[in-house]
Design the sequence.
C-alpha cells in the first residue's frame, strides 16, 4: 500500500520525511529495494492522480492496483494517464460500487468503464 484512496490518506501518506520525500514515495522505494525479482506491485488511489504519477515515476515497471475511481471521487481518466507504464499498461483499475450499483446494470457499466479506460490509454503515446 503506497497511497490509499480514502479521504484521510493525505494526512499520513503525503506527510514529508526530513529530506522532503512524501511517505508514500518512500514506501515504494523500500518495496522495490526489498524485492530484487521485480515482482512487487503497489496500491495507489485514483483519488490523487499526482500520487499515481509519483508512484509510477518511482516504480516505472511495477503493476499498480488503482482503487477509488467512481464512488470515492477519483477521476478515472486522470489516474489512467498518470499511471500507465511505458507500454501503456501496468494498471489494474478497481471499480466496485460503480459497477455493482450502476442503474444501467453491471454489464453495461463495466463495458462503459472499459471504453473510457481504452480511450485514456489511446491518448497516451508510447515511451
Sequence:
Amino acid at each position: 500500500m503506497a497511497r490509499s484512496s480514502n479521504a484521510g490518506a493525505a494526512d499520513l501518506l503525503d506527510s514529508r520525511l526530513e529530506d522532503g520525500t512524501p511517505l508514500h514515495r518512500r514506501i515504494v522505494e523500500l518495496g522495490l529495494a526489498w524485492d530484487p525479482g521485480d515482482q512487487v506491485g503497489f496500491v495507489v488511489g485514483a483519488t490523487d492522480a499526482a500520487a499515481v504519477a509519483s508512484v509510477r515515476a518511482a516504480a516505472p515497471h511495477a503493476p499498480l492496483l488503482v482503487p477509488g475511481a467512481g464512488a470515492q471521487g477519483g477521476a478515472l481518466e486522470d489516474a489512467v494517464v498518470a499511471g500507465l507504464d511505458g507500454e501503456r499498461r501496468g494498471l489494474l483499475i478497481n471499480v466496485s460500487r460503480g459497477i455493482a450499483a450502476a442503474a444501467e446494470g453491471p454489464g453495461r457499466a463495466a463495458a462503459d468503464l472499459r471504453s473510457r479506460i481504452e480511450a485514456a490509454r489511446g491518448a497516451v503515446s508510447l515511451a
Remarks:
- Strands lie at 42-43, 64-66, 91-93.
- The first helix runs from residue 9 to 13.
- The domain at 9-122 is CATH 3.20.20.70 (TIM Barrel).
- The helical segments are 9-13, 23-34, 49-58, 76-83, 97-100, 106-122.
